[in-house]
Structure formats: C-alpha cells, structure tokens
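Continuing from the previous page of notes. For each protein in this section, the sequence appears first, followed by its structure tokens. Read the first protein now.
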Amino acid sequence: MENLDVMVLRQLRDWRLAGKRALLATVVRTWGSSPRPIGSIMALCEDGAVIGSVSGGCIEDDLIYRYTQAYANAAAANASGRQAIPSGAPGFVKYGISADEAHRFGLPCGGTLELLLEYDPDANQLERLVRLLESGQLVERVVQLSDGLVTLASAAAPTELSLTDERLTNTFGPEYRMLLIGAGQLTEYLATMALFSGFAVTVCDPREEYRGAWSVAAAKVVSDMPDDVVNAFKPDRRSCVVALTHDPKLDDLALLEALKTDAFYVGAIGSRRNNQARHERMIEHFGETPKSLARLRGPIGIYIGSKTPAEIAVSVMAEILAVKNGVALPRDVEVAIAKNELHAG
C-alpha cells in the first residue's frame, strides 16, 4: 500500500482535473483523545466519494451528509439543511464539543477535533505537489486562510503541522521505504505487514532458489549482492534496513553499509548468541567499535513469546513502527532482556 497522504492527494487531483468539485479536510487541532493525529487528511468529492480518514468513520459520514447530494436530490437536501460543497476561503469545523456530540461521532471520552476544509483546491497545484512527492521530495505546503492560496516549497526535514491566524503549514513526504535482505518465509510475512503499513518494500536476495518461491507481488525483488543494493537504495531518514538471512556473507556487509546512512532503523534477525557473534566479527574483521555498532539492532523485535514466522514478523514490525513513530519502548520488551530475565528466573 502506498503512503496514504500521496493516495489522498493523487485522487483529489484526479477529481479536480476531471472538473469535479471536491474538498480537502485536514485535522488541525485536537483536545483530549482523538482517533486520528493532527495533520491527517481526507478528500471528499461532490458525488460522495471519499478517500483518507480524519476519524473512525462517523465524521466522514457527517461531511458527506453536509456537503454532497449523495443521499438525496438537491431539493430534499436543501430542505433538510444540507448543501453542496461551498466556494471561497477555507473554513473550520469542530467535532466533539459536547459529550453527546463526541458520542455521536465516535470520539473517545472528552475528545474534540477541529478540521480545516479547503474547497475546490487548485488542480494544477495538486498536480505539482503529487509530482514532487512521487519523485521522492519532501514538500512544505502553505495555505493562506484568507483566500485559500497555496504555495509549495522544498523542505529539509519533516515538521509538525503549524496553524496561525494567517496560514496553515503542513509537510508532506514521500513514502517510507523498507529494504529486506533475504527472501524467506519470514520476509514474506514482514513484507506484507510493511506494505499495508504504508511502506514501499524492496527485497534483496542473490539466491535464486529463494527468489523463485517469492509470492508477495507488491514488493520489488532484486538479485544483486546486498551491500551493493544498500548503496543503490540510498537509505534516508524515512528508510529501514532489515537483514533476515542468518548468513553472515549476505547480512554483515549490507548492515555495515546501512549503518553509514541515515536509515531510522537497521537491524538483523538472530538469537542473542548470533547477535553477539555478529558484533564480534564486525569489530575483529571490519574495524568497527561498540560505539559505531550502537545503532545496530538485534535480536530485533519486541518480546511477545513468538515462535512462528508470522508472529516473529508481528514482533519485528511492531518495533519498527515504534521507532518510526518516536516511541521509546520499555527495556523489558526487548527480546534479549526479556529472555535473559526469563532464564534468570
């Protein structure tokens, strides 16, 4: 699955290029608990089609009810207070102000969120934005609240959404990427989970017998040596590299190259003993130090007592998502620490 923001913006662009009226909704403020974070977006077409999400579904339904003729003809809609998508400057709408409204819209107790609605965003600006994102660029999008005028600029780093009295500033980035070394069964499960989590997945395995059995069509499969693939992949801050072959000839050099990059996660499968042996090899034969290997994760995953490839993949994906989202996991869920404590007991 692609990056959700890119999917939303691409569909919105297509609606507008086809001459259809549409709006873009962005979560700009939240109070208490909310189902979607600030910066989440969705697009609504005049025919009631919707893509993206700003809640668990009830708010989307209300926006459809308010701004389209999807459920009734124009006369009936006007009689019940519904209207077509308006024109002009962006507007705000708030949900969950009262306990009854929060319950009605499926918001957690005390939850309130506010949306900015942009009516009929410019098709040419959307085309340019999608083109930049598809080329791998990070883009800052600024919306003037007085008239809806949009400007785009390259961004050096992702930033949180900013809202002032004059403008909304949001950063859109290319999709997250995952490079997996080895095309075994565990890789198939992990690749599948990564794809539906919004990662673009590349799998590297020079062993023909493993590539021949690969079954996850949406992942790109390459056959070059892993260290060469890492260099060609050019991992950045939105990339992770995971070695899954258990073969030092394939894993070690790829991991060493990955550690030279800005990848947010670099790790390898294996037992505590194998992980220790990997560190010792890299220090003895490649001149690494404990400091230079500090970013190398292993054994990877969080401890959930997993034994099967599917469960191990869940464990690894959970850790990758926690690191991606900046969540510091308790030390007692790290595989090595949890197993050490179990054996000590």
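Done with the first. The second protein uses the same format. Note its length before scrolling.
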Amino acid sequence: MTRGNDLLRDALQQLDGWNAAPTHISRTLTIDDSQHADLTERIKIFADALELRPRVRRHDGRTEIALNRDEGVTLSEIKFAARVEDAYQHIAGVTGVTGGPGDPHKEANTGALRAWWNRRVKPQPHDPAE
C-alpha cells in the first residue's frame, strides 16, 4: 500500500473477505455460473470507470478477483473492492451476516465502509488567501 497506508488498510478492513498485500488485493467468492457471469459484467464496468485491470477467473465453483499494482494499492482499488462487494451482495442475495469468518457469503457491509470513510475524510476549509 502507498501513502496513507493506515487509512487504506483500515478502509479495506471494512470489507470482510478481501485480502491485502502492499501491491495486491484479492477476494474469492463461492457463486454459481450465472452469478459469476453477472458479477463479471459489473466488474468490467467498475474497472473501466476506475481505469483498473483486475484479474477475474472461475476455478472449482469459485470466482477469484485480484488486482495487482506495482506502485501499490490506492484508494481506487478500495473503491473497486467496495463496488464489487455491493454487486456481489445484490447478485448473491446477501442481506446480512450469515455465518462465521469462514462463511463465503458473509456480508461485507459496504454501507459501513461509506460511513467510516465519511467520518475519516473531512473537507478541508478553503483558505481565502489562496
């Protein structure tokens, strides 16, 4: 992760199930083939909007999503992860926490991420001398 490492790490922790390293974030979801197709289409839209190139693959009934950036994970990757979580919850019908830490359908609670982010990022007052 790059500048604001603590802030970015805290933001990513609001999204359960995402794994992070300094230059990589990833998530594995257990969804069926039609859900995978729907999610993949949405991921393409999110990635294009944020100018990211995630790797999405289907393996053993799971969808694996990974983003690698040599220059480090930034807020764009965190935004991408939050959008993917929202789409996943909608597609898979996830409406709440359904199990423990190993449950692949555990809610990520991206609404909590938004609330957390809004508390952390405060608008800077405008300096009239500028």
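What the second structure shows: The chain has one domain: 5-115. The longest helix spans residues 33-50. We return to this in next week's lecture.
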